[in-house]
C-alpha cells in the first residue's frame, strides 16, 4: 500500500501504464492528450528486452509486425528480425514521433485508486452515463489516482481522467509450478532457474551455465524450444551433455516457411516434413486449435538437427517433482538426473493486473470462463474510464494493439459512441462462446482465426470503411496487412 499522504504531483487527462509494444502503440495514438506514461523498466519494448534470449527472433514475418505508418526499413527482407532488431525498430518509431518525452522510466505503478464516484463500478457507471451508457472516456474530472515509486521508497501520486493499462501478458511475474511438501526445489542439490532469470544472463554466462551440465528444460512452448537449442549449442563437442525437454502438453511446432502451406493440409504436411512421430511429438489435438490459441511454436532451424544428433531429448510427463539429484516422473515412476532445471513455464500476466487494479474493478476482470471480458479487446463495460491494450493475442500482436489504440483514441475524441453497457456485455459473451467452440485453449484469448472479421467490425464501428484496399482486384487477391490501416487517425 502506498503512503497515506497523497499530494498529487500531476494531473493529466490520460495515463498509460507500460511502454512495451502495446503502451507505445497507445501512446502514439493518444499523444495529442499529452499523456503520462509509466514504465517500470529502463527502456521501451517490454518482453523484447526482458523475456528474450540471445537467439530470440520474431516469429511473425517483419511485415506483419510493423506500425501502419512506419514500415521496417528493409521490409522485404524475408529473414526474421532478432529481438535487438525489434528494439531498434521500436526506438526509431518512438524517435520519429517524438514519444520518449512522455515516458517516465524506472517508474513502477504500485497502486490505483478510483476517485470518480462513491463506490465505483457498475452502479456509478449507470448513474453517470445514464440509461446504461458507458459514458465519456474523458469526463473533464479525475477518475483515477495512480501511485508510482520512481527508484526508491517514496511514492508519488498522479491523477487522470482515463487510464490505459498495458502491463503485458508475459514477463515480470514468473509462473512457478507447485509441488507437494519436501518434493519441490528446496530438496534439489542442483540449480533451478526460471527462463525470465536466464534472459538476464549475457551470452558467455548463459553458455557457462549450461556447458557440460545435465539440463532439464520444463515446457514445450517457444521459450522452451529456443532454450533447448541454446543448451544444445553450449554442449557441442565431447564434453557436451544432452538436455531433456520435459513435456506436459504437446503443441504443434512449425518451420519458418509454414505460411506457404495450405491450411487444411498443414497437419499432414508437418507430420511429413518434421520428425514429430519419430520423437513422439505429434499433439493429440488438431493444428487449428493451436492456431486459434496462438500456440504453435516456430522451431529454429537447428532444433530437429540437434535432436537427431542426440543433443535434445524428450520426456512426456504430466506430473513430476524434484528429488535431491534431479526429477521424478510420477506417471511412470522413472527418474532423470539433472544439474540444472530450467523452468520455461511461462508468466502470470494476470497477477500484474490484480496487484494494481482495486476492487470492485479487479473482480470485473475475472470471468468464470477465465477470459478477460473486454469489448473490442479494450474496454471492460463495467470499469469506467479505463482501457486495456495488449491482452488479446493474434499472430501479429503489434498490429492488433495498434488498431485497438486507434479505435480507443477515436473513442476518446468522441468520433463514435460505444453501444450500451448491456449490449457490450452480450457481445463479449458471444465472442467467448465462439472462442470456446474453436479451441480448448480459448483462455489464451487469441483472435487469430477471426482477426480480419474483428478488424472489419472495428473499422465499421469507427465509421470507416472495412474495405481498405484501393481496388476490387486488390481486395480479392492480396492479403491484408498493417499497411492497409494507414491514415485512420
Ligand atoms: C519470447 C516471446 C516471443 C514473442 N514473439 C512474438 C512474435 O513473434 N509475434 C508476435 O506477434 N508476438 C510475439 N510475442 C508476444 C509479445 O508479447 C507481443 O508481441 C508484445 O510485444 C507484447 O507487448 P506488450 O506491450 O503488450 O507487453 P510487454 O512487452 O510485456 O510490455 C509491458 C510493459 O509494461 C511494463 N509494466 C508492467 N507492469 C508495470 C507497472 N506496474 N508499472 C509500470 N510499468 C509496468 C513492463 O515493464 C513492460 O515494459 C512474443 C512474446 C514473448 C515473451
TrEMBL record:
Question: Cofactors per UniProt?
Answer: FAD
> What are the entry keywords?
FAD, Flavoprotein, Monooxygenase, NADP, Oxidoreductase
Q: Might you give the EC number(s) for this enzyme?
A: 1.-.-.-
Pfam families (alphabetical):
FMO-like
Please name the Gene3D superfamilies in this protein's record: FAD/NAD(P)-binding domain (3.50.50.60)
Which principal EC class is assigned to this enzyme? oxidoreductase
Note the InterPro entries from the entry: FAD/NAD-bd_sf, Flavin_mOase, Flavin_mOase-like, FMO-like
Which GO MF term does the entry hold, naming one? flavin adenine dinucleotide binding
Does the record bear Oxidoreductase in its keywords? yes
Write out the similarity annotation: Belongs to the FMO family.
What PANTHER family does this protein's entry cite? Answer: DIMETHYLANILINE MONOOXYGENASE (PTHR23023)
Q: What is this protein called?
A: Flavin-containing monooxygenase
Q: Which organism is it from?
A: Linum tenue
Amino acid at each position: 500500500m502506498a503512503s497515506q499522504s497523497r499530494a498529487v504531483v500531476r494531473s493529466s487527462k490520460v495515463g498509460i501504464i507500460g511502454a512495451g509494444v502495446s503502451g507505445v502503440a497507445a501512446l502514439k495514438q493518444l499523444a495529442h492528450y499529452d499523456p503520462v506514461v509509466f514504465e517500470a523498466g529502463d527502456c521501451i519494448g517490454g518482453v523484447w528486452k526482458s523475456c528474450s534470449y540471445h537467439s530470440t527472433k520474431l516469429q511473425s514475418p517483419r511485415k506483419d509486425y510493423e506500425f501502419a505508418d512506419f514500415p521496417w526499413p528493409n521490409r522485404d527482407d524475408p529473414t526474421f528480425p532478432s529481438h535487438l532488431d525489434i528494439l531498434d525498430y521500436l526506438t526509431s518509431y518512438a524517435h520519429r514521433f517524438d514519444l520518449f518525452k512522455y515516458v517516465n522510466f524506472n517508474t513502477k505503478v504500485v497502486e490505483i485508486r478510483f476517485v470518480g464516484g462513491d463506490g465505483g463500478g457498475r452502479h456509478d457507471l449507470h448513474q453517470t452515463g445514464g440509461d446504461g451508457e458507458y459514458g465519456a472516456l474523458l469526463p473533464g474530472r479525475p477518475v483515477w489516482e495512480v501511485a508510482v515509486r520512481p527508484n526508491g521508497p517514496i511514492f508519488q501520486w498522479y491523477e487522470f481522467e482515463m487510464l490505459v493499462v498495458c502491463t503485458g501478458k508475459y514477463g515480470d511475474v514468473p509462473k512457478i509450478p507447485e509441488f507437494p511438501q519436501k518434493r519441490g526445489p528446496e530438496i534439489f542439490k542442483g540449480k533451478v532457474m526460471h527462463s525470465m532469470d536466464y534472459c538476464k544472463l549475457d551470452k558467455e554466462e548463459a553458455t557457462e551455465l549450461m556447458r557440460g551440465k545435465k539440463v532439464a528444460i520444463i515446457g514445450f512452448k517457444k521459450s522452451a524450444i529456443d532454450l533447448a537449442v541454446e543448451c544444445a549449442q553450449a554442449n557441442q563437442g565431447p564434453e557436451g551433455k544432452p538436455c531433456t525437454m520435459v513435456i506436459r502438453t504437446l503443441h504443434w511446432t512449425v518451420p519458418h516457411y509454414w505460411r506457404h502451406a495450405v491450411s487444411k493440409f498443414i497437419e499432414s504436411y508437418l507430420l511429413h516434413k518434421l520428425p514429430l512421430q519419430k520423437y513422439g511429438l505429434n499433439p493429440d489435438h488438431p493444428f487449428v486449435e493451436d492456431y486459434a490459441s496462438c500456440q504453435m511454436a516456430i522451431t529454429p532451424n537447428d532444433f530437429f538437427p540437434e535432436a537427431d544428433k542426440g543433443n535434445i531429448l524428450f520426456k512426456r510427463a504430466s506430473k513430476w517433482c524434484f528429488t535431491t539429484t534431479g526429477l521424478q516422473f510420477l506417471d511412470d515412476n522413472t527418474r532423470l538426473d539433472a544439474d540444472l532445471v530450467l523452468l520455461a513455464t511461462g508468466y502470470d500476466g494476470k497477477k500484474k493486473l490484480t496487484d494494481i487494479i482495486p476492487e470492485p474493478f479487479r473482480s470485473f476482470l475475472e470471468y468464470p470462463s477465465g477470459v478477460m471480458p473486454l469489448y473490442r479487446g479494450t474496454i471492460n463495460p463495467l470499469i469506467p474510464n479505463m482501457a486495456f491494450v495488449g491482452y488479446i493475442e493474434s499472430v501479429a500482436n503489434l498490429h492488433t494493439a495498434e488498431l485497438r489504440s486507434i479505435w480507443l483514441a477515436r473513442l476518446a475524441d468522441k468520433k463514435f459512441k460505444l453501444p450500451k453497457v448491456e449490449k457490450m456485455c452480450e457481445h463479449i459473451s458471444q465472442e467467448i462462446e465462439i472462442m470456446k467452440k474453436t479451441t480448448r485453449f480459448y483462455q489464451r484469448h487469441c483472435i487469430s482465426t477471426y482477426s480480419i472479421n474483428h478488424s472489419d467490425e472495428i473499422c465499421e464501428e469507427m465509421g470507416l470503411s472495412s474495405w481498405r484496399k484501393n481496388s476490387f482486384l486488390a481486395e480479392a487477391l492480396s492479403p491484408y496487412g498493417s499497411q492497409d490501416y494507414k491514415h485512420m487517425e
